[in-house]
Design goal:
This protein is mostly beta strands and 260 residues long. It has no helices and 20 strands. The chain has strands at residues 27-31, 42-47, 53-56, 63-65, 71-74, 77-85, 88-95, 98-107, 113-121, 127-136, 145-152, 160-167, 170-175, 180-184, 191-192, 202-210, 213-220, 223-232, 238-244, 253-259. The strands form two sheets. The protein has a ten-stranded antiparallel beta sheet, with no helix packed on it. A ten-stranded antiparallel beta sheet has the order 4-3-2-11-10-9-8-7-6-5, with no helix packed on it. The two termini are 26 Å apart. The model is unreliable at 1-21 (pLDDT under 50).
Length: 260
């Protein structure tokens, strides 16, 4: 559940294969959490060589930290950790100096389950809340070890986005709740993402595989960070976004969007 660290998933920008105003991709789309599948991803807490702790999920958000009330950087995020009770770890997340949200982790008495509650605010002012449960995959004490998600209410996915065709051969994507956007041709070339919480150096490219299917690649400073495909349903009323982290193709997640 990348919202727990970044809360800025922009994969929904990657849709749209046809470049004509009558394209079935054009319009306003809304996330359908009931039909989506956000579980199965893993992350690891380990001891770093520098004596700090390390969070790693295989993306550009990997970072080192200590539970000492001091700020630590993850891309353009600043994260401050605290340990209010023996089985509870809290963190405060800000982006570019502005508060983004808080995350609480609670370890079960048997040490096998980690329950997470994220409470934040999206750039448009709407609530960005998520509850998730992770089960321990490898042995470890406290937070240490690898964890796999078995429950997530939203996965941090954008709630609504709009696709338009401002001119021939050009498409424009807006994610209102993130105040994020991208514009350009669908030719597989990288182009920057714009938005108040978008990390510097993040780009996206998308390439039409079929009239109803697009592949997209997101990068941070030129390094591939996530890959996905989007397929519109035969009736044109919904599409599915299947995404994964390079090297973790067995942890694919699916977000389903419905046309409004």
């Amino acid at each position: 559940m990348k919202a727990l660290i970044l809360s800025c998933s922009l994969a929904a920008l990657a849709c749209g294969t046809a470049l004509a105003a009558e394209s079935p991709w054009v319009g306003t789309w809304k996330l359908d959490p009931a039909k989506s599948h956000f579980t199965g991803d893993t992350f690891t807490y380990s001891k770093a060589a520098n004596g700090l702790m390390r969070y790693s999920d295989g993306t550009a958000s990997d970072y080192d930290f200590a539970v000492d009330g001091k700020p630590y950087k993850s891309l353009n995020r600043t994260i401050i950790w605290s340990h209010p009770t023996p089985d509870t770890w809290d963190s405060q997340v800000s982006v570019n100096g502005k508060p983004l949200g808080t995350l609480q982790r609670v370890l079960s008495a048997d040490g096998k389950t980690l329950s997470m509650t994220y409470k934040g605010t999206r750039p448009d002012g709407s609530a960005d809340n998520d509850e998730a449960v992770y089960e321990r995959v490898t042995a470890g004490e406290g937070l240490l070890g690898t964890w796999r998600s078995v429950k997530s209410t939203s996965g941090g996915a954008p709630q609504t986005f709009v696709i338009s065709v401002p001119s021939t051969g050009v498409v424009h994507y807006d994610v209102p709740d993130m105040k994020a956007s991208a514009e350009g041709p669908t030719d597989g070339s990288d182009r920057p993402l714009d938005g108040p919480t978008v990390p510097p150096g993040m780009t996206i490219s998308f390439k039409a595989l079929k009239p109803n299917e697009t592949k997209y690649v997101m990068k941070v400073n030129g390094k591939v960070d996530s890959v996905g495909t989007q397929t519109i349903a035969a009736d044109g009323r919904s599409f599915s976004d299947v995404s994964w982290t390079p090297g973790k193709e067995n942890e694919k997640q699916t977000a389903v969007y419905v046309k409004q």
